[in-house]
Design goal:
The complex is a heterodimer. Chain A is of the alpha/beta class. Chain A has two domains: about 5-85, Elongation Factor Tu (Ef-tu), domain 3 (Beta Barrel); about 95-255, Nucleotide-binding domain of ferredoxin-NADP reductase (FNR) module (Rossmann fold), CATH 3.40.50.80. Chain A is built from six helices and 19 strands. In chain A, the strands form five sheets. A seven-stranded mixed beta sheet of chain A has the order 12-11-10-9-13-14-17, sandwiched between helices. A four-stranded antiparallel beta sheet of chain A has the order 1-8-4-5. Chain A has a four-stranded antiparallel beta sheet with strand order 2-3-7-6. In chain A, β13 (about 180), α5 and β14 form a beta-alpha-beta unit. The radius of gyration of chain A is 17 Å and the shape is globular. In chain B, α3 runs parallel beside α5 and α6 crosses α7 (about 225-240). In chain B, α1 (about 35-40) links the parallel β3 and β4 (about 45-50). Classes of the chains: A alpha/beta, B alpha/beta. The interface of A and B includes residues 216, 222, 223, 251 and 252 of A. Bound molecules: flavin-adenine dinucleotide (FAD), flavin mononucleotide (FMN) and FE2/S2 (inorganic) cluster. Flavin mononucleotide sits at the interface of chains B and A.
Chain lengths: ~260, ~300
């Protein structure tokens, strides 16, 4: 059982104008790629990937996009959130050569997996994409680890001028590696089509309510629960998820095309 | 050669509906789309009840809609559903897959129930389940299902309009469950489903507030089984129509207990949280094992034995 725990915010880091990380004490096991349901009392409860996994500390990194994330964005040290989890399967670092490709806040989801792969001395490359240089985050965090960090911006204000999929096309020549991605689903779908002969893992997002696999809200493909059997799916599974890159269900369960 | 287990008959009959085993997926659990329903069916469920469907798309309550507790779970989803028109494509697919399906509907007036029932019948469901018991939906569910006269009227009108069997899902949150059960039988309904989740609340001590956004929710899972058993037993003492037992079933013995109390079949919801999606297969095996050890060959011989 994953009962709700109340956590005090012990540190806040502003990553850029739109993105913050909040840290709290946490000493149980978490796998990179797993997520928590974060309760913001009086506002909402929302899924958030774990973006830091340290000995006694965990964190979430989020973009201010709506009511709940805005409230979180304005929280101060000492304010309290509820957490339940960690939920989901997490990434499988089952290759020694890994290319991580992230877009937007999806990069937060990849970060603990990248640090894990680095600790294991795997051969890694990181490709991350942003709208412009003001949206950059975690570039220093990754830059400290490796030299193979590639950045794209849509307006060319820093790094490669273009989107992350085009940059990936230029960089990835090597068939014998695992691609791990998290970001906008259209981006991940494009990558999946481009690199269809590669080992591949993508972390999906769907509207979540129970997060334990019973309400059916987050189901994709042939009844796979993103909260339980996901959020990370590999190439074999993605091939059978016809919704991937096509549509999502909203809170009511109606299909909405991307 | 035929081995012992194969001689054991666990098929079930609820009025005119026959199913290969007595385990049915309860409404609101992994039943929002045809593919999920197919997956549950492939994991052994004898039949499936859909999510409760209304006339229009409904978002349900804001999160938190779900709390994990020590002996059960608490939810206040708020009847989220895509609306009957969008749900057509799911029913059509489910029937194409050949899955016996019971369409759950909720309305606030007799007319709404009739509109929904006619559409469900046209889409091809095998039977209907009227949700008259959701503990946390304003204007729906229990707010209708606690008035025996209103229940009688709604069902009688429906029975004059649709041909497929009608099961009525009721709550344990009633002062007189027998009165309601009798009204349902008088209205010519084909069966009673008991029970829905039970009105409950969880307050967090640090935040000092109820956790659910709706504050009040429905309690389900292990803790509520004795309440469900009592309800089924009391109903079965007082009416002749078939009963489907629901509430806190997680293993074969729980299912047998409901059947002994008078249920012809059982539904399983929260059990999936405890034992996974293949809980249906597991429970069927456990029922057969128990029957073999206790020299029963037909599950139907066990219905209501606790009353004799
Ligand atoms: C497994 C998972 C991990 C995630 N990890 C991160 C992360 O690390 N960083 C980050 O910034 N964002 C992450 N998200 C997205 C994040 O949950 C949404 O941005 C957040 O819920 C927005 O809430 P809001 O009230 O601020 O905005 P709203 O205006 O309410 O919603 C904005 C968008 O968020 C989506 N959303 C709202 N509630 C939910 C919900 N309960 N479940 C899923 N989506 C929802 C809406 O569909 C909408 O598209 C993750 C989502 C999932 C499913
Ligand atoms: C998440 C969740 C959603 C539910 N949604 C519905 C619903 O839409 N309609 C309904 O009649 N019952 C609904 N129920 C109640 C169940 O069908 C069932 O009656 C109740 O949970 C007791 O059985 P259980 O202990 O096996 O879960 C829901 C229960 C849960 C846990
Ligand atoms: S969020 Fe309920 S099944 Fe995934």
């Amino acid at each position: 059982m994953n009962s709700l725990k109340i956590k005090e915010i012990i540190k806040i880091k502003k990553e850029n104008q739109y993105v913050k990380t909040i840290f709290f004490k946490y000493d149980e096991n978490i796998k990179p790629g797993q997520f928590f349901m974060i309760w913001i009392p009086n506002v909402d409860e929302i899924p958030m990937s774990v973006s830091y996994i340290k000995r006694n500390i965990a964190a979430i990194t989020f973009r201010d996009v709506g009511d709940a994330t805005n409230k979180l964005f304005n929280f101060k040290i000492g304010d309290k959130i509820g957490i339940r989890g960690p939920y989901g399967n997490g990434f499988k670092l089952n290759r020694e050569k890994i290319i991580f490709i992230g877009g937007g806040t999806g990069i937060a989801t990849l970060a603990p997996a990248i640090e894990n792969a680095y600790k294991k001395k795997f051969n890694i490359k990181i490709i991350i994409g942003f709208k412009n240089k003001n949206e950059l985050f975690f570039d220093k965090r990754f830059g400290k680890l490796i030299n193979n960090l590639y950045i794209s911006t849509n307006d060319g204000s820093i790094g490669y001028h273009g989107n992350v999929t085009d940059l990936a096309k230029e960089i990835i020549k090597d068939e014998d590696c695992l691609i791990i991605t998290c970001g906008p689903e259209i981006m991940m779908k494009k990558l999946f089509e481009l690199f269809n002969t590669y080992q591949f893992q993508a972390s999906l997002e769907r509207y979540m309510k129970c997060a334990v696999g019973i309400c059916g809200q987050c189901c994709v493909g042939h009844g796979l629960r993103v909260c339980l059997e996901g959020p990370v799916f590999d190439a074999t599974m993605l091939k059978n998820i016809k919704d991937f890159g096509k549509y999502k269900r909203n809170e009511s369960g109606n299909i909405k095309y991307f | 050669m035929v081995f012992g287990g194969n001689l054991i008959d666990i098929s079930a009959k609820i009025g005119s509906i026959k199913i290969k085993n007595p385990t049915i997926l309860a409404s609101g659990i992994m039943d929002q789309d045809a593919e999920s329903i197919k997956r549950v069916f492939e994991n052994g469920a004898g039949s499936i009840v859909t999510k409760s469907i209304g006339l229009k798309p409904k978002k349900g309550y804001l999160n938190p809609t779900f709390v994990e507790l020590e002996h059960g779970i608490l939810n206040a989803m708020g009847l989220p559903n895509p609306g009957i028109n969008d749900f057509k494509q799911e029913i059509v697919k489910i029937k194409k897959y050949g899955i016996p399906v019971i369409g759950s509907i909720f309305g606030s007036t007799s007319k709404e129930f009739i509109d929904l029932a006619l559409k469900m019948q046209k889409f091809g469901v095998d039977a209907l389940e009227l949700n008259m018991s959701c503990p946390h939906a304003k204007g729906y569910g229990l707010e209708i299902g606690s008035d025996p006269d209103l229940v009688y009227n709604i069902i009688s009108n429906l029975k004059n309009t649709v041909k497929i069997p009608i099961f009525v899902k009721i709550s344990s949150n009633l002062t007189d469950i027998i009165k309601l059960a009798k009204a349902i039988e008088d209205s010519k309904a084909d069966g009673i489903v008991a029970i829905n989740s039970i009105k409950a609340m969880k307050i967090d001590l640090t935040i000092r507030k109820p956790i659910l956004s709706n504050k009040i929710g429905g309690y389900s899972g292990k803790a509520i089984k004795p309440i469900g058993i009592r309800c089924v037993y009391e109903i079965s003492e007082n009416v002749e129509i078939p009963i489907i037992g629901v509430g806190g079933i997680t293993n074969g013995k729980d299912a047998i207990e409901y059947i002994m109390a008078g249920a012809s079949a059982v539904q399983i919801g929260t059990g999936m949280y405890y034992r996974g999606i293949d809980i249906f297969n597991k429970i069927c095996i456990e029922i057969k094992d128990w029957m073999e050890n206790n020299n029963y060959k037909k599950l139907s011989d066990l219905i209501g034995v606790a009353h004799i």
